[in-house]
Amino acid sequence: MKRLLVLLTLVLAFFSAKAQENKNYWNNKLKIVSFRLPPPPVGYTPKIVDLNGGGKPDAIYSITRDSIPILWLDDDGDMRWDDLEGDTKNDCLLIDRNRDGIYGGHGDLIIDWIDTDNDGKADMQIVAEYPPRKADEVWPNGHYMIVLDTDKDNIFNYIDWNTMQIKSWDKTGICDFYMDYSGQSAFLKIHAATYNMQDVRLNWENPFLFYDEDGDGLSEMAIRLVDSPKKVDASAPANSFVNKQLTGNIDWVSIAVDMDNDNRPGDEFDFDFTLSFRGKGFDYRDQVHKFRNPRLAETDSFFVDPRFRRMTELIYPDHDSAWELIFNRGKWDQVYFVYDEDDDCHRWERVELYDPRDPFKVGWNKGGIDNNKQSDAAGDRGEWDLDNSGNGQLYMGKFDGRLHLYGAEWGCWRIDQNTDYYQGWDRMWFGLDKNPSRFATVKYTDKDGNGFFDYLEYDLDGDQTFETIVDLKEMGVDDRCELIDVSSFKYKDFINLMDKMADGMWNNAMQACKVAEHFRVNTGWYAKLKQALSIREKYDKGYWLQLYLYKDLEYLFTRNQDVRSLEKLNKAYYTGDWSILL
Fold first, then answer.
1. Is 407 left (phi over 0), alpha (psi -120 to 50) or beta?
2. How buried is residue 354: exposed, middle or buried, by Cβ count under 10 Å (0-12/13-18/19+)?
3. pLDDT digits (tens, 9 = 90+) for 144-188
4. Which of 332, 329, 444, 339 is nearest to 388 (CA)?
5. Which residues contact 30 (CB under 8 A, 6 or more apart)?
6. Helices of type H across 345-417
7. Fewer CB within 10 Å of terminal CB in the chain, N or C?
8. What gap in Å lies between CA 136 and CA 4, rounded to an integer?
9. What's 282's DSSP letter?
10. Could you tell me how far CA 258 lies from the centroid of its own chain?
11. What is the DSSP track for 425-445?
């Protein structure tokens, strides 16, 4: 009998535990995406209060998963006495993650939705995250991020509600990010607690702009504008308050473009190149954006820093003004250019830039062109105009039919023909830190200083020695090309430029086939390269088909000791005029 009672007690305890477990919201720490804040468990009664004595509820004290205390503040007067939670159109959520009884303080997460145009939907979301303790060092202690819903899709930042952490980089598939990077959208962000900012109307990434140029809900262009904090007191630590303040000046810009507009569901981001400007930049403090921000003044006491709650304006260049400010107001010292030759970049903001460093050193922080941990180990082509002599202009090189940076002193293409070294958004975070031990490299140099590359070096066997050197001047080839000024470009101009470049590459490749067949070279070996099913394939396969046929003809003429034909071949290939050989 005693054993039976013990057994019965254990069974009742088990079912009691299961019953308690079932009181929790169903999507609680499951192995599926947590899209929403878990409501309080069944049986829990939130405390609803009238903060300002107006006779209507203004706040809900409640709990979420794991009994974490939360506080909802009603900013538009539509809260009801029987509500379980606030709304995501004009309310503010404070999560007391450290359970210290202070809802908007250290260790906590705050999410504030603002309906700026009073249409019943949020147009702005402010996320403020504070470090566990008071941060004397400014960076990177905390987050302050503002998402602007300029395309009215009601998608904002992404919070992992299983961890109560900002996860702006979480995604499904290759690059379908939960954060609102797609479409016509924008955000402003800094890695700092707001109390370490002199002016919360400014920001570090101020802003990140995404352009949906064809209305398909995806982004065809992205512009990142950065207001870098300036060191003003050499006697103070570099990461101190005085040396980490924003100045209202954009000094770093990147422009990324999907030139062939081949992004689509399943491949939401496919930028082809990035153009980056660095220098004095431009003052943007006249770019003021006022907005409607209803709130209860009585709620300020809940926040360690309530200034962002009081804001009625932000200061940043917007979608309409950014391009003009960059090209007409900006004063730049350097221009970087990178082209995604292996077409594997699926980051939300740009093809990650290469640095003008060693062509052969590989890996994050190893001193090579891929020194940045987010850059592609191999596969991209970087070019650098370190005195801005070219003013960000481009040109299509006769020697390869590709887009190049005018004024660049040198450039480097680290070849990854088969896309073996895939570029995610961060090769470290996703286990993609697979660096090549051997790779082909092409180096470009402007030896005569006229802004165009005239000296080409090839290391195709990957031994880190350039076995082939081509001097266009010695060959009698004019390196000068028509300049392309993108300062007045619209998106369609980039598409037209890509079409022109790809068609030119492909037409030259077809002409190269005729020349090769004229000299009885069997082009059937390259049947795979002779089938191009897209603009990008015309560009890519057109280049490789020409190179393979050029090298086959070079071998043939060298074998036959046909010096005259060999000279004509070199001129034909490096001028893009294969008819010279016919």
1. left
2. buried
3. 999 999 999 999 999 999 999 999 989 998 889 999 999 999 999
4. 332
5. none
6. none
7. N
8. 62
9. E
10. 12
11. S-TTTTT-----SS--EEEEE
